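Example 3.2
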Amino acid sequence: MFYILSVISMLYGILMALATIKIIPFSEHPIIFIINLVGVLCLLLYVKYYRLLYVGVVILFIAALLNGIFILNRLTTTHITIRLIFSLTLISINYLTNHLY
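Structure, written as tokens:
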């Protein structure tokens, strides 16, 4: 299960990094850009320390809220709901993998 979660974590991190670089202009929103990349870095470093997945997922969820508020000027309920479900799923699997097995 650890390997599957590692792959999902890395794919999620890489996709979020690419989206951040493509969509968020650093010159206009440097703090949001950096917050996104810190969350991505935590996901990519998950294989070294399992608790970084918790930190990365929470940071990326907060970043999604900030992206909606400041970049898109609106929050999309569907997007936030899907991100919340995905985030809680990753956190749950990580918890089960590292605490029950």
